[in-house]
Design a protein that fits this description.
The complex is a heterodimer of chains A (248) and B (183). By secondary structure, chain A is an alpha+beta fold. Chain A has a domain at 63-126. Chain A has helices at residues 30-51, 59-65, 76-91, 129-143, 210-223, 229-233; strands spanning 6-13, 16-23, 71-73, 107-110, 113-116, 149-153, 156-170, 177-194, 200-207, 237-240. Chain A has a seven-stranded antiparallel β-sheet, covered by helices on one side. In chain A, helix 1 packs antiparallel against helix 4 and helix 4 packs antiparallel against helix 5 (210-223). The two termini of chain A are 28 Å apart. By secondary structure, chain B is α+β, with helices and mostly antiparallel strands. Chain B has one domain (18-177). Chain B has five helices and eight strands, in the order E-H-E-H-E-H-E-E-E-E-H-E-H. Chain B has a six-stranded antiparallel β-sheet with strand order 2-7-6-5-4-3, sandwiched between helices. Chain B starts with a strand and ends in a 6-residue tail after the last helix. At the A-B interface, strand 1, strand 2, strand 7, strand 8 and strand 9 of A face strand 1, helix 1, strand 7, strand 8 and helix 5 of B. Strand 7 of chain A pairs parallel with strand 8 of chain B.
Chain lengths: 248, 183
């Protein structure tokens, strides 16, 4: 794999650094691979414009500004992400919550219509949209003819094609990284946040798609259960890392 | 999906010492050519901000940080196309070098990360540690070059890069207003 030519770039997007790696497209000019990477970055930037709560005109910005009892039309990305969020919320008894407690059940997606059921409900897709963005960027690379590569949005990553991607886990306490695993044709995400009991937990999840890996890290952190039954439903596997070392 | 753990249940990883990590994406020259593919010349220029200019930036709420900036003026057939400015920012454990391309209208055309370095706490702030990377030195135990390793961790914020871009946009706008960029 190391003798393959790889185009590797990073840009600040989604509030973090997004890295894209693409193996050179066989039989095409080198520019074709660079163009594929540019297109994948453009896909992520477009998704950010539609899903960021910091963009007033985004689907999320419009929902947050709307009053109870109204509904707004949302685009395909919002439908995918909110559909998954509703499934996870219902299956985890509200442990997965894109409103971060402001109105767990105060929104409802009905086709392309997003209903707001309480004024206080504010959606923040920070716990799931990065994973979806990674999946979309991978799809764009594949559509452009890239056979193997990876996308990493600030630690939520996915590798595709004939390529084994070594994963280094950051030591959140002391800095530096440790080799954790190697992944082929799959996604891996890590999260660290304070749960309701006041304990900061650090978890990783591997799954076939990054949307599920990203979202399920929150379920593992919030429930403190690396073997949560929801993981199996999505073909995922989870780890809770030791808070002292920051690593499992 | 195929996942191979580094050690049994990942536990061996905890015994391994934390290593530094580095990736080089682009040189400053490569980034400049990507941002201005039509340019036939990049003219290096030093911008030296005087006290009044530093104060003007402060008044805009932009911490100017440095009075001296190195910029590349992108030109085609003698006509200006824009500027490219490179900078680096230090986070909790990381050092990020990046380049910003700015068009003639003062808007950001493109931002590219040039390199990413991550290490254990303190040394990232030491000038000697940072200097070792000048000229792409691959010092052990850094994992660079043939390695395609990726970091996973609690989300890294790019706030420092965003602030740095804002600062560069303000510096370039000021320099242009004061005739320090134009022919």
């Amino acid at each position: 794999m190391n003798d393959r030519r790889i185009v590797r770039r990073a840009r600040p997007l989604l509030g973090t650094l997004v890295e894209i790696g693409a193996t050179a497209i066989d039989g095409a000019a080198p520019q074709a691979t660079a163009d594929a990477v540019d297109a994948a970055f453009a896909r992520v930037a477009a998704l950010q414009q539609r899903l960021s709560r910091f963009v007033a005109a985004s689907d999320v910005g419009r929902f947050n500004a709307a009053s109870a009892g109204t509904c707004i039309d949302v685009g395909g990305d919002a439908r995918t992400v909110l559909g998954a969020a509703a499934e996870l919320r219902d299956a985890s008894d509200g442990a997965f919550d894109v409103t971060l407690g402001s109105g767990t059940h105060a929104w409802r997606l009905d086709g392309r219509r997003l209903h707001k059921l309480a004024d206080r409900a504010q959606i923040d897709l920070g716990g799931i949209a990065k994973g979806h963005a990674v999946d979309c960027a991978v799809a764009t690379l594949e559509q452009h003819g890239v056979a193997a590569g990876w996308v990493n949005a600030g630690g939520d990553l996915r590798a595709f094609g004939d390529l084994a991607l070594p994963i280094e886990l950051r030591d959140e306490e002391g800095g530096g990284v440790r080799r954790f695993a190697t992944i082929e044709d799959g996604a891996f995400a890590t999260s660290r946040r304070q749960a309701a009991d006041g304990v900061a937990r650090h978890a990783s999840v591997a799954a076939p798609r990054c949307l599920w890996a990203d979202a399920l890290t929150k379920v593992v952190v919030v429930t403190a259960n690396a073997g949560h039954p929801l993981l199996a439903r999505f073909g995922a596997r989870g780890w809770l890392h030791d808070p002292r070392s920051g690593i499992a | 999906m195929r996942l191979t753990l580094a050690g049994a249940l990942g536990a061996v990883a905890a015994a391994a010492p934390a290593a530094a990590f580095a990736v080089d994406y682009l040189t400053a020259e490569q980034a400049a050519r990507l941002m201005f593919p039509d340019a036939d010349r990049f003219e290096p220029r030093e911008l030296n901000l005087d006290a009044a200019e530093m104060q003007a930036l402060d008044a805009q709420g932009v911490r100017s940080r440095s009075a001296r900036w190195s910029v590349q003026l992108a030109q085609h057939a003698g006509q200006p196309l824009g500027v490219v400015v490179t900078d680096d920012v230090v986070g909790k454990f990381e050092l990020i070098s990046y380049a910003v391309g700015i068009g003639l209208d003062g808007t950001v055309k493109q931002i590219e990360i040039l390199s990413y370095r991550e290490s254990h706490g303190g040394e990232i702030r030491l000038p000697a540690w940072r200097r070792q990377f000048v000229g792409k030195t691959a010092a052990s135990p850094l994992r660079v070059g043939d390695d395609i390793a990726n970091i996973s961790g609690a989300t890294l914020s790019c706030t420092h890069v965003t602030e740095g871009v804002r600062r560069i946009v303000a510096v370039v706008a000021l320099a242009r207003r004061n005739g320090k960029l134009g022919p």
